[in-house]
Amino acid sequence: MSNENREVILSIKHVDISFDVGHKKKFVAVKDANFDIYKGETFALVGESGSGKTTLGRAIMRINPCSAGEIVFEGKRISGKISKEEDRNVVRNIQMIFQDPAASLNERATIEYCVSEGLYNFHLYKDEEERVAKVDRALESVGLLPEHKSRYPHEFSGGQRQRVGIARAMIMDPKFIVADEPISALDVSIRAQVLNLMNKLKAEKDLTYLFIAHDLSVVRFIADRIAVIHHGEIVEIADSETLFKYPMHPYTISLLSSVPMPDPIVERTRRHIDYDPSQLEQTDEKRELRELRPDHFVFCTANEFEKYQKKISELEKELG
Q1: Number of H-type helices and E-type strands within the chain
Q2: In whole angstroms, what is the distance from residue 92 CA to residue 78 CA?
Q3: pLDDT score for 271
Q4: Domain with 199 in it
């Protein structure tokens, strides 16, 4: 489907996010971020620890304020000062699945209360019977049993707790979900189950995901499009297949070289490519996201852009 015909559900427009660090000093965690997320897709934001990906996810949730630019959800600005009613609308329609399932649940509350909290806050039920029925359906949708609702978070495994976190988000019937490294704290055997569950719920409920991760091998199989972030700057955006086939930015190439291969022969000969920013063209010209091919953007100067165009033409000939 052509992206021109798709509905944009969320736009990040020239967003900067900075934090005060001591007297009159600022740390800029995200610099001039720009991208659109289309309704019904899984958009992955990938980068190493400290790259600013979680900071950006939290800004969408209105936890971190933007110091410049704006975030637009369904055509309305949701960053900065907005009315109380619009703020409630954001909370109602944008939910977050957190990285640490243990820390994100109240250990002193039952699973029933943890999952019901949003229902209580927005009074999304007409009576107790309907609230309990909604909790039961939410738990069943993530593969847990209704009788689990009387237990406490510490009685569950990490994978089960993450399912509770997903149920808590889903019970609000949101339109958009920020999934902040939802599987990084889980055992490898449980990761596939949680990813499959998220894909199943996405199809059933027509959800849109921002999937934050540091591992490209994970997002390859869940993401429709991928944005790579490095030190707060979006360096490349492309659909999953294009990014893996034609990575252009040196940082993307470095990340891909770290992805382990299931083939032991290939794995033995695999060479990790270190990213060295000094290899980039040293110039005063401002780098910006430029469209290399339809829907494939690279953060570069005009001169680097010409080199990337030449490189991608050669790769296309070579790979057919």
Answers
A1: 11, 12
A2: 13
A3: 78
A4: 3-319
Torsion of Cα atoms, 56 then 60 then 66 then 71, to 10°: 110
pLDDT tens readout for residues 151-177: 999 999 888 999 999 999 999 999 999
**What is the predicted pLDDT for the residue at 315?**
86
Among residues 214, 119, 107, 227, the alpha carbon closest in space to that of 171 is found at: 119
**Strand boundaries in 21-63, DSSP class E:** 26-38, 42-46
Question: What's the half-sphere exposure (Cβ side, CA atoms, 13 Å) at 243?
Answer: 30
Spatial distance between the Cα atoms of 195 and 217, rounded to a whole number of angstroms: 13
Say how far apart CA 53 and CA 180 lie, in whole Å. Answer: 9
Q: How many distinct structural domains can be found in the chain?
A: 1
How many other C-beta atoms are found inside a 10 Å radius of the C-beta of residue 116?
22
Residue with tokens 């800029």: 28
Would you state the pLDDT for residue 1? 43
Task: Give the pLDDT of residue 55.
Answer: 95
Confidence at residue 320, expressed as pLDDT on a 0 to 100 scale: 63
**Taking Cα atoms as reference points, which of 185, 187, 140, 186 lies closest to residue 164?**
140
The domain spanning residue 34 has which CATH number?
Answer: 3.40.50.300
Residue with tokens 């893996």: 244
- 165 near 105, Cβ under 8 Å? yes
Residue 308 CB partners (closer than 8 Å, separation 6+): 248, 292, 298, 300
Residue ranges of the chain with per-residue pLDDT less than 50:
1-2
CB-side exposure of 262: number of CA atoms within 13 Å? Answer: 1
- Please give the pLDDT value at position 172: 93
- Our CA angle for 88, 89, 94, nearest 5°, is 105
Q: Which amino acid is at 169?
A: A
